[in-house]
């Protein structure tokens, strides 16, 4: 298949959107849907919805919500999996100028109650059941009688609740869009690896500029189709995929639950141009492709981001998945999405050794500032700037960075330095060319015998062993050393000997960095955040329990 070079694709995208017009999500969608009514927007395993279909459906849902009293500025919770309904509801809420509060459907009853209440939600749109769970029973307990609820599903529900599918009975609202660029678009709750969820406030302007910069950096061609399983209640699925696709009249191919073989089949069936995910998921895609084979001539790019990768994975993306372009990046909910990215035309050494440099926002750049976010590295103890290439705490600021957490003034104040830089909680370095390399989480660090250990350094070494698929190192309390390392390993069957892995570490690392314990886990047993990162605090608790029982 003949493909235009990235620079050509990038120039075409720039020409389409320059000069930039500040707008809202709903207004952007309205323009694209009018231009490409017959193009697919959402392609699932069950059905495909075109731009025209989604325009009509979102207008009817907006009319339904408005009839129940939802208006501009109201917060509306969304408890839906990836799919057509999620996209239609998100666009409808944006049309009304209301604020979307997407919920993690893995939250338990009390957790759902906390987020719905903490976000000051005015209404809720929810699935009746998913993955064998009955949400109706939980919601009936935690929601007050007069709370407006719209249920997407055929299951029974309290009579006071409306069926979202009855939106077809409502005449579609007109083309009036209440949202303005600087209005809140959404409150996205962080998955986090510890602590209570915090609602990150994002405006329409932040979402659109960041999504455009993602499309521009990754050099989207016209009509790009993106396959992914990342939940759209987080910024990867929402901003990097759905909203970014709008800028080229493209389509999303979302999976509602991750299945590696199924996602590869969806990519082939719907002629995906890009597959995106986080390291744990893209590793699983490689395994499925090796086992079952994979041929997808339409595939242009693999975008794997959200953490550190083993060095040889990038060549495997080309060899096994036949992806001519491979890209990685770095970002977080608080920065709207990824803020650094490698370029698809750069040599493989860039993705092996870095997470890219600050994304050029192109047409979406604000006057005098080509980037939506910039980073600096400081000493984690003193806060003093460090030299290029030296590890330290990462700080970020810029127009793509949130102004804070909803209804959490103390947490917001703690997150920012006195001069306005956001503490991202990661350790990294920035080289002389401006390329950022993620080293690890600040909270993952532990001290063994008074010496600081960065788990990612140890994990990266362990993952060079051919029998190790994943390595997650946590610090465990120790009476003599303060803390010692425990490596939680996902490996081949049979796994390598613990002694072999210890010897590998001893040959390359200082003694205090060598894990005292090696524990083996099945991949399914590693607790993950919805964005695919290991929940280290849960993993440490599991390791302590295993060791208490004798390993």
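Sequence proposed for the structure above (551 residues):
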């Amino acid at each position: 298949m003949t493909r235009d070079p990235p620079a050509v694709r990038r120039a075409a995208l720039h020409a389409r959107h320059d000069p930039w017009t500040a707008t809202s999500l709903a207004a952007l969608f309205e323009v694209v849907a009018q231009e490409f009514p017959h193009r697919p927007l959402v392609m699932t395993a069950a059905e495909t919805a075109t731009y025209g279909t989604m325009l009509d459906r979102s207008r009817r849902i907006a009319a339904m919500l408005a009839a129940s009293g939802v208006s501009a500025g109201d917060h509306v919770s969304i408890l839906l999996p990836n799919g057509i309904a999620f996209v239609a509801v998100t666009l409808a809420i944006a049309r009304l100028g209301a604020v979307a509060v997407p919920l993690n459907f893995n939250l338990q009853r009390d957790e759902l109650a906390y987020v719905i209440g903490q976000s000051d939600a005015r209404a809720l749109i929810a699935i009746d059941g998913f993955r064998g769970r009955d949400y109706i029973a939980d919601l009936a307990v935690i929601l007050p009688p007069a709370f407006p609820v719209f249920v997407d599903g055929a299951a029974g529900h309290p009579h006071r609740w409306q069926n979202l599918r009855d939106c077809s009975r409502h005449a579609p609202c007109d083309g009036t869009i209440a949202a303005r660029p600087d209005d809140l678009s959404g409150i996205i709750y962080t998955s986090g690896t510890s602590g209570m969820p915090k609602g990150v406030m994002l405006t329409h302007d932040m979402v659109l500029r960041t999504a455009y910069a993602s499309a521009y950096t990754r050099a989207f061609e016209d009509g790009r189709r993106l396959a992914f399983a990342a939940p759209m209640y987080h910024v990867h699925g929402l901003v990097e995929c759905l909203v970014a696709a709008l800028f080229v009249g493209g389509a999303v191919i979302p999976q509602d639950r991750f299945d590696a073989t199924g996602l590869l089949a969806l990519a082939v069936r719907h002629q995906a141009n890009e597959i995106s995910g986080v390291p744990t998921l893209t590793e699983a895609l490689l395994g499925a492709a090796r086992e079952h084979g994979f041929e997808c001539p339409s595939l242009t790019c693999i975008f794997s981001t959200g953490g550190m990768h083993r060095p040889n994975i990038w060549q495997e993306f080309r060899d096994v998945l036949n992806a001519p372009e491979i890209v990685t990046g770095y970002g977080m909910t608080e920065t709207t999405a990824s803020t650094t990215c490698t370029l698809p035309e750069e040599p493989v050494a860039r993705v092996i050794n870095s997470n890219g440099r600050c994304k050029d926002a192109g047409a979406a750049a604000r006057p005098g500032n080509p980037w939506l976010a910039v980073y600096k590295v400081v000493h984690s103890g003193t806060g003093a700037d460090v030299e290029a290439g030296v590890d330290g705490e990462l700080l970020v600021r810029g127009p793509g960075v949130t102004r804070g957490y909803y209804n959490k003034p103390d947490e917001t104040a703690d997150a920012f330095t006195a001069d306005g830089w956001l503490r991202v909680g990661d350790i990294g370095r920035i080289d002389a060319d401006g390329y950022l390399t993620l080293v690890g989480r600040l909270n993952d660090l532990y001290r063994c015998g008074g010496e600081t250990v960065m788990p990612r350094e140890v994990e990266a070494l362990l993952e060079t062993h051919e029998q190790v698929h994943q390595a997650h190192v946590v610090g465990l309390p120790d009476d003599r050393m303060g803390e010692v390392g425990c490596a939680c390993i996902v490996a081949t069957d049979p796994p390598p000997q613990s002694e072999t892995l210890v010897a590998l570490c001893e040959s390359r690392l200082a003694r205090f960095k060598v894990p005292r314990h090696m524990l083996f886990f099945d991949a399914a047993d590693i607790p993950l955040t919805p964005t695919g990162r290991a929940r280290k605090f849960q993993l440490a608790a599991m390791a302590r329990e295993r060791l208490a029982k004798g390993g």
